[in-house]
Amino acid sequence: MDIQNPNQIIQLLDERKYVADEELVTALFLLLKLNKPLLLEGPPGVGKTETAIVLANLLDTRLIRLQCYEGLDVNAAVYEWNYQKQLLGIKLHENSGLSIEEKEHHIFSNDYLLKRPLLSSIMEEEKSPVLLVDELDRSDEEFEAFLLELLSAFQISIPELGTIKAKNKPFVILTSNRTRELSDALKRRCLYHWIDFPDLEKEMLIVKKRLPGIEEKLLKQVVSLVKVQAAKTQ
What we know:
The protein is α/β, with parallel strands linked by helices and 234 residues long. Among the domains are: 1-70 and 128-151 and 169-196, Rossmann fold (3-Layer(aba) Sandwich), CATH 3.40.50; 199-234. The protein has helices spanning 6-15, 22-34, 48-59, 74-77, 83-92, 100-107, 117-122, 141-153, 184-188, 200-210, 216-233, and strands at residues 38-41, 63-67, 79-81, 113-115, 130-134, 155-158, 162-165, 171-176, 191-194. Strand 6 (155-158) and strand 7 (162-165) form a beta hairpin. The protein is elongated, with a radius of gyration of 22 Å.
């Protein structure tokens, strides 16, 4: 889809019942035009993850999600080898007459590679996917440093296979609840937008999009009650 201006994004989001302010729409437009990662920060529950889901729907492309957590490592985020399948492959080729080099080449091939979200995102064949790196602040600084390399060059090095470069660069959205400060190095590589809790008017508009037939008085009562409860939990 060729998006020419931010107004086109507003229309497409409106068709999908998603309410976005002008600043967020501008950030999404720049993400698409510059193919530069977009970092969305804000408290939990304000729609950061939903933004990536809607963007993938808007572009009619695949959403690839990496949920971050403490201790996240390369095996869970990038790739690992299917060791059981490799052992079976070794057994099957014991008497095949192949050289050691040929056997190694066979078992360290794509057939035995388990692609995790980051690797999958740069090996997409059809079109650029949306890569969602969700709650990056929950991962540790070592993983964040590794992510910098991917965001800079959109390539991953696998010792047994060499360097794999993106066939179609993914559109990257990173989210953070700001439980810890992300590094300046990462922020410099990203577009940035802060998403806060919606005000009363915007929240009423969001509910109207999902429930177009709701009575105005009931709408105000429900939204007001939700905001009061949300304020108590903050």
